[in-house]
Amino acid sequence: MPISFIFKYKHIMFDDLLGNLQKQQEELQQKLAGILVEAEAGDGAVTVTAGADLHIENIKLDPSKMDLSDREQVEDLLLVAVNRALEEAKQKAAVETNKMVGGMLPGGLDQFLKP
Q1: First-to-last CA distance in the chain?
Q2: pTM for the complete prediction?
Q3: Domain total for the chain?
Q4: For position 108, which CATH number holds?
Q5: Residues 6+ apart with CB under 8 A from 97
């Protein structure tokens, strides 16, 4: 077999693999955007909803559970709730990513992705 044929065949296989990986990455991003988590701070004074793609979807403030005129308290509660929501979103993203990557690995190798 001529070398040029082997090189061309490997090049086609590599392009197919990259195209497949790109498609799976796009599908994963769409899936992560649809997974929402919620976290709160101050016993529900602040509730944050975040997507597993690490975007903040919504922030709710319950004025009956905090003093809105206390700017420092509001800022602290916001920080805590946002960080909690993003941490939970990261965990959900890791689980989904491991599912995708695990399905691509040859038998048994996906066990190395488990926490």
Answers
A1: 46
A2: 0.70
A3: 1
A4: 3.30.1310.10
A5: 28
